[in-house]
């Protein structure tokens, strides 16, 4: 391989939410896609099948799905526009068991009128679950779009204990394990 070229590899692992395709670019996690996910790149772009780059990721996913992990500590290589990467950084700051609205994320980025743009960037998140785009809800506390499907989003939020107040939380609140509180 000549210098400047990137190598990509992938593996597929089972999860309570169906098979997950993990993708690495130069040995660093750059994709985690659910079966049937919207904006999923074509399979042929994932590179050769090779599970070696994913041992730590798989271990942490197993711990998460077993209820023993609330944060991930794996290197990520996120490819996107500067705005998308800013949104994804905000997603990483949402703690386990909590939610944020698209408007709250836009405000945290200093772009209070950019809720739709935040939603579009959220939908393009290439590393689902680990970059927790499922923790973003509508301003009224209701479920809104999710690339992996609303059923999976709801199941993930229930699993994390953040779903008990969906639809009941006033705008500007967060939820953690069913307890509503103000954001700041």
Automatic annotation (TrEMBL):
Listed transmembrane segments: none
MF annotations from Gene Ontology: methyltransferase activity
First-listed, main subcellular location of the protein, grouped into a coarse class: cytoplasm
Methylated-DNA-[protein]-cysteine S-methyltransferase DNA binding domain ranges (all copies): 82-161
Catalytic activity: a 4-O-methyl-thymidine in DNA + L-cysteinyl-[protein] = a thymidine in DNA + S-methyl-L-cysteinyl-[protein]; a 6-O-methyl-2'-deoxyguanosine in DNA + L-cysteinyl-[protein] = S-methyl-L-cysteinyl-[protein] + a 2'-deoxyguanosine in DNA
GO biological process assignments: methylation
The keyword DNA damage belongs to this UniProt entry's keyword annotation: yes
Domain Methylguanine DNA methyltransferase ribonuclease-like, residue spans: 11-78
Catalytic-site annotation from UniProt: 133
Keyword field: Cytoplasm, DNA damage, DNA repair, Methyltransferase, Transferase
Additional comment: This enzyme catalyzes only one turnover and therefore is not strictly catalytic. According to one definition, an enzyme is a biocatalyst that acts repeatedly and over many reaction cycles.
Main function: Involved in the cellular defense against the biological effects of O6-methylguanine (O6-MeG) and O4-methylthymine (O4-MeT) in DNA. Repairs the methylated nucleobase in DNA by stoichiometrically transferring the methyl group to a cysteine residue in the enzyme. This is a suicide reaction: the enzyme is irreversibly inactivated.
Family statement: Belongs to the MGMT family.
Protein name (database record): Methylated-DNA--protein-cysteine methyltransferase
């Amino acid at each position: 391989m000549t210098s400047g070229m990137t190598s990509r590899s992938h593996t597929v692992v089972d999860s309570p939410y169906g098979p997950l395709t993990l993708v690495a670019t130069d040995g660093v996690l750059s994709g985690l896609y659910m079966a049937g996910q919207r904006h999923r790149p074509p399979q042929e772009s994932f590179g050769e099948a090779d599970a070696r780059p994913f041992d730590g990721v798989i271990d942490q996913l197993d711990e998460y799905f077993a209820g023993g992990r609330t944060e991930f500590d794996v290197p990520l290589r996120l490819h996107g526009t500067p705005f998308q990467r800013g949104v994804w950084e905000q997603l990483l700051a949402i703690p386990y068991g909590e939610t944020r609205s698209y408007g709250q994320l836009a405000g945290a980025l200093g772009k209070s009128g950019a809720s739709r743009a935040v939603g579009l960037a959220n939908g393009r998140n290439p590393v689902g679950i680990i970059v927790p785009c499922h923790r973003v809800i509508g301003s009224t506390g209701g479920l809104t779009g999710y690339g992996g499907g609303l059923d999976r989003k709801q199941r993930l939020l229930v699993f994390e204990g953040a779903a008990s107040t969906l639809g009941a939380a006033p705008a500007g609140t967060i939820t953690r394990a069913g307890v509503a509180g103000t954001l700041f």
